[in-house]
């Protein structure tokens, strides 16, 4: 069986520290998100940590969920690209070819997890900060869609090293930037098709596994492990929402341009 | 070639950084170079000594260490053609085991920051004008030397908390020059140190064996985000939750805020600010009166306190909880052993902060958690306390008064500042900025123009973390002796010099004879002393060069067999119980909080951290005030409305963020912003809570009680958009379609 790169993300371990977010930004040459980018709702975070509420003070909880690209097997974003800039690799990755992308943004419309990000503007860094850019990752230009790539540059390197040594890749000999940084090892990366890999073993034996928006039938490669709660709130707590501005009546208009 | 021969070759070269060697690998695997992962190889000639454009076409990883704002970590840095690309955790370093924080990941931005001061500067205009002229290092050195000579005997050195080689150098410097070395660190850390000293009899912060605990009771400490040693404690937390088959630790959080760390708790018990100690005593009362714990143990650690005066019915109304909640806390803590109790962050930042912390930490004795599996782990002394001192302790707010007075009166002639920003970090009431301008000469070793740097006569930029040498004694350690080795992974990106080199040069100028010539000499000499002293996990070599190269390769020196020798000693008398005092008479508490990304504002100049959403609110790049929804309706404000926060110190305008988890009478304001100047990314942005709290002091330590202010609110009839992550994508969690699925174990 060929490889299928995937991840398990244990929600019982994620502490919302977001070391994964910065690690990804450092590894993948992601432009700095300015205040304006956030106001325009165009901040680029290939992996982001979402926070959901349950209830309201004093019976309230907040929970975290890291959301990278799901690498869906039946990705809704792939069939709609007019130039085939996004396609499925034989290792299960949903691949984005930057220099093919013509910026129709149809793929991001189709992504229900909203993990695709468009470069509305030319990414710029002050000259000195360019020293930090990772030479193994393309710097995208304006008009190009980008998203989490499961650190394809690391996958490639590990693959080449293994080939040079005439052996197969070993589970755990490399990992994605987000998984490497995570202090609690909430994120684990590996080959879902390798029965001996940590991710495959977890998926096979856990009673807590689920996929985000599984009902949509895309079969994501990211398997979440349910958050465990030893002290749940009383039944009937309503109000679960991401955007707390839905509590009040405020509706913000999105800045255009 | 055998490894030993190769090591000898490398050791003979003598100089330069040595590449990270990884987990005791013995094979040199050339084909694994440049695969983006820490490899097990040596490079004889490091990029540090090579020209900047040294092109190998491969990356290499170097181990170094960072003492940081909290505890510290061992790091590995990916260097590509002389440029640092990525900072990650050192997989072998016992404290963080390859993991890292957002701050550590951002250290490359400090190195390549566009607003880094490029070279020495001399004040051109009036003090505080920000008008400087660039000068050469020769000129700067001459001027510095004359200032040192003139300031002999009355020099004030202000640094962040330092340990190991930097502390040793600072100590020698002050001895040679004559003067005082004070440490500037987060105030609640000072209270924490005193609390653990009293309760456990140790000068070093303890760590906690979460991996083997069944119940964690946390009174406010942000231990998963930015308190003390977040990566180390997160690793323990991970094992606590999912590291043992069939057992999952239970975590309850007691505190006034559902903070970033509290969100990970199974249960949050909201209490009124500053009542942590009272709740702890009430718990102790329940446990002893119901025979759940050893009465004698309780009587011993709480000696001097009549626990019945703190029964739940008396404490509950003060803490804003019910009797049942306290009873449940007590019963659970006593029955789900191993149990461990910790406290920190805002719990220590009250007028009764020391009482809060000591009362909580003392609970550990009642359940046998001190020095036991799954409990409090006392850290041993540094392996060489004289040459590798433990971390220096911060100077409490109250003790800055005589320092400031001495500056004002002319008693201090020279002020040297490194890695500290007291003009920003001390409330304006202290008058520190004015005191700096009273006549002393001020030299800043800072790399950035900040509130304190712009008061300097002379600015001598010093190497940042990734450019310098050092040996760190982390506080807390992992429960055994550990020394982290910091080594330069790149040449200085600007015209900066190592701090310790400058201190050594200055002391020599003043006529003292220092044991070392440079920082690198100091580090090498100290490692040689470590080797002489024996111990450590580096064996099989007598050659000091080979030994040093091995320390460089693994990123430090450690010895898991060296746990604390002296057992913890319980206090003879308990710290006096006290209720928290607040300044102001409004019904609302003002509760500032350090954030996951910016902590107290020491690294607000790094754009990745500014752009990192605060975990609970997801807000970025700003300061805001979190208000409960019901309170918001009462005040007729929604997210985005600007309100005036009025204390007896100042009035400040901040945008509202409606937080469904905020208590109805607490106004939460994050630390980190409000810099007048601190690079393009931090200047003139938001507000500094320290500028509008009413500065009170913790009654015994004199530390700043920054959580002891009450605040009035008024609408400002303005609206702004609060920049944040939430709302960027239409993500709704519906009852029928949960996004976060939960498995209840009850």
List the helices and strands and how they pair.
The complex is a heterodimer of chains A (257) and B (746).
Chain A: E1 5-10, H1 19-27, H2 35-39, E2 48-56, E3 59-67, E4 86-88, E5 94-96, H3 106-110, E6 116-118, E7 145-147, H4 152-164, H5 177-181, E8 187-191, H6 198-205, E9 209-210, E10 222-225, E11 227-229
Parallel strand pairs in A: 1-10
Antiparallel strand pairs in A: 1-8, 2-3, 4-5, 6-7, 9-10
Chain B: H1 3-13, E1 59-66, E2 73-80, E3 83-89, H2 102-105, H3 107-111, E4 121-123, E5 132-134, H4 137-150, E6 155-159, H5 164-177, E7 179-183, H6 187-200, E8 207-208, E9 215-219, H7 230-242, E10 250-255, E11 267-270, H8 276-289, H9 295-301, H10 312-319, H11 323-335, E12 339-343, H12 353-366, E13 376-377, H13 397-409, E14 414-418, H14 422-425, H15 432-436, E15 441-444, E16 458-459, E17 470-472, E18 481-486, H16 499-509, H17 519-533, H18 544-554, E19 556-559, E20 588-593, H19 607-610, E21 625-627, H20 629-635, E22 641-646, E23 651-658, E24 666-670, E25 696-697, E26 704-705, E27 709-719, E28 742-744
Parallel strand pairs in B: 6-7, 6-14, 9-10, 9-12, 10-11, 14-15, 15-16, 20-24, 21-23
Antiparallel strand pairs in B: 1-2, 2-3, 4-5, 4-16, 8-13, 17-18, 18-19, 20-27, 22-23, 22-27, 25-26
Helix pairs in contact in B: 1-18, 4-16, 5-16, 6-12, 8-10, 8-11, 8-12, 9-12, 10-11, 17-18
């Amino acid at each position: 069986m060929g490889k299928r790169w995937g991840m398990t993300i244990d929600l019982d371990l994620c502490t919302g520290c977001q070391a994964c977010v910065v690690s990804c930004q450092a590894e993948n040459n992601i432009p700095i998100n300015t205040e304006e980018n956030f106001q325009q709702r165009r901040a680029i975070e290939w992996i982001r940590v979402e926070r959901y509420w349950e209830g309201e003070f004093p019976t309230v909880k907040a929970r975290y969920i890291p959301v990278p690209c799901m690498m869906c097997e039946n990705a809704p974003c792939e069939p709609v690209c007019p130039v085939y800039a996004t396609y499925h690799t034989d290792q299960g990755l949903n691949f984005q070819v930057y220099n093919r992308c013509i910026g129709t943004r149809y793929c991001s419309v189709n992504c229900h997890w909203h993990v695709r990000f468009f470069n509305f503007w030319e990414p710029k860094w002050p000259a000195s900060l360019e020293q930090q850019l990772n030479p193994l990752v393309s710097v995208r230009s304006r008009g190009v869609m980008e998203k989490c790539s499961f650190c394809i540059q690391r996958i490639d390197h590990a693959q080449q090293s293994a080939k040079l040594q005439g052996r197969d890749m070993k589970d755990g000999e490399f990992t994605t930037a987000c998984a490497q940084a995570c202090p609690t090892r909430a994120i684990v990366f590996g080959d879902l098709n390798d029965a001996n890999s940590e991710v495959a073993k977890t998926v096979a034996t856990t009673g807590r596994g689920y996929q985000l928006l599984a009902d949509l039938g895309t079969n994501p490669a990211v398997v979440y492990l349910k958050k465990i709660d030893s002290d749940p709130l009383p039944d009937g707590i309503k109000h679960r929402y991401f955007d707390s501005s839905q509590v009040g009546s405020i509706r913000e208009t999105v800045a255009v341009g | 070639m055998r490894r030993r021969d190769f090591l000898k070759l490398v050791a003979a070269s003598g100089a330069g950084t040595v590449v990270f060697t990884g987990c005791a690998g013995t094979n040199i695997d050339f084909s694994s170079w440049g695969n983006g992962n820490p490899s097990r190889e040596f490079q004889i000639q490091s990029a540090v000594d090579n020209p900047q454009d040294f092109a190998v076409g491969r990356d290499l990883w170097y181990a170094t260490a960072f003492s940081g704002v909290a505890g510290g970590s061992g790091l590995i840095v990916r260097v590509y053609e002389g440029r640092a690309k990525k900072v990650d955790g050192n997989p072998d370093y016992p404290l963080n085991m390859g993991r890292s924080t957002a701050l550590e990941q951002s250290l490359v931005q400090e190195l390549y920051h566009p607003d880094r001061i490029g070279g020495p500067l001399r004040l051109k205009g009036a003090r505080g004008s920000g008008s400087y002229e660039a000068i050469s290092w020769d000129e700067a050195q001459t001027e510095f030397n004359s200032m040192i000579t003139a300031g002999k005997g009355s020099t004030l050195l202000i640094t962040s908390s330092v340990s190991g080689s930097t502390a040793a150098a600072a100590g020698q410097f002050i001895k040679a020059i004559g003067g005082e070395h004070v440490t500037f660190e987060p105030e609640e850390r000072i209270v924490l140190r005193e609390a653990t000293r009293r309760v456990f009899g140790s000068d070093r912060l303890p760590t906690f064996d979460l991996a083997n605990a069944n119940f964690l009771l946390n009174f406010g400490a942000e231990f998963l985000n930015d308190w003390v040693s977040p990566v180390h404690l997160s690793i323990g937390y991970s094992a606590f939750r999912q590291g043992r088959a069939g057992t999952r630790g239970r975590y309850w959080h007691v505190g006034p805020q559902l903070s970033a760390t509290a969100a990970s708790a199974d249960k949050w018990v909201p209490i009124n600010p500053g009542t942590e100690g009272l709740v702890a005593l009430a718990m102790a009362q329940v446990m002893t009166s119901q025979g759940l714990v050893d009465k004698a143990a309780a009587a011993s650690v709480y000696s001097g306190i009549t626990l019945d005066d703190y029964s739940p019915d008396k404490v509950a109304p003060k803490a804003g909880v019910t009797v049942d909640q306290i009873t449940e806390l007590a019963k659970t803590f006593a029955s789900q052993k191993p149990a461990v109790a910790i406290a920190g962050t805002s719990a220590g930042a009250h007028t009764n902060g020391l009482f809060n912390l000591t009362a909580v930490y003392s609970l550990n004795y009642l359940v046998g958690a001190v020095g036991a599996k799954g409990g409090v782990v006392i850290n041993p002394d540094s392996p060489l306390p004289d040459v590798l001192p433990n971390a220096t302790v911060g100077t409490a707010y109250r003790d800055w008064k005589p320092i400031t007075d001495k500056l004002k009166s002319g008693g201090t002639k020279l002020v040297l500042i490194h890695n500290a920003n007291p003009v920003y970090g001390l409330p304006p009431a202290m008058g520190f900025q004015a005191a700096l301008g009273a006549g002393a000469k001020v030299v800043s070793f800072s790399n950035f123009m900040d509130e304190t740097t712009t008061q300097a006569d002379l600015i001598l930029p010093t190497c940042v973390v990734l450019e310098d040498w050092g040996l760190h004694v982390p506080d807390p350690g992992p429960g055994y002796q550990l020394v982290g080795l910091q080594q330069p992974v790149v040449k200085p990106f600007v015209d900066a010099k190592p701090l310790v080199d400058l201190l050594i040069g200055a002391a020599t100028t003043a006529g003292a004879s220092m044991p070392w010539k440079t920082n690198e000499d100091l580090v090498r000499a100290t490692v040689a002393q470590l080797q002489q002293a024996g111990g450590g996990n580096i064996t099989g070599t007598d050659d000091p060069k080979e030994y040093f190269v091995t320390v460089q390769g693994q990123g430090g020196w450690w010895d898991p067999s060296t746990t604390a020798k002296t057992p913890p000693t319980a206090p003879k008398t308990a710290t006096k119980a006290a209720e928290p005092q607040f300044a102001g008479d409004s019904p609302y508490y003002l509760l500032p909080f350090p954030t996951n990304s910016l902590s107290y504002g020491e690294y607000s100049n790094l754009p990745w951290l500014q752009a990192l959403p605060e975990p609970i609110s997801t807000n970025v790049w700003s300061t805001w005030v979190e208000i409960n929804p019901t309170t918001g309706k009462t005040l007729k404000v929604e997210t985005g409305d600007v309100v005036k926060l009025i204390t007896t110190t100042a009035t400040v305008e901040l945008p509202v963020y409606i937080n469904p988890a905020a208590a109805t009478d607490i106004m939460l304001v994050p630390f980190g912003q409000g810099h007048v100047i601190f690079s393009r990314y931090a200047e003139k942005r938001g507000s500094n809570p320290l500028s509008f709290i009413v500065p009170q002091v913790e009654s015994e330590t004199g530390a700043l009680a920054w959580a002891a202010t009450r605040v009035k609110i008024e609408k400002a009839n303005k609206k702004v958009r609060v920049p944040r992550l939430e709302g960027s994508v239409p993500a709704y969690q519906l009852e029928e379609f949960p996004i976060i699925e939960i498995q209840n174990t009850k």
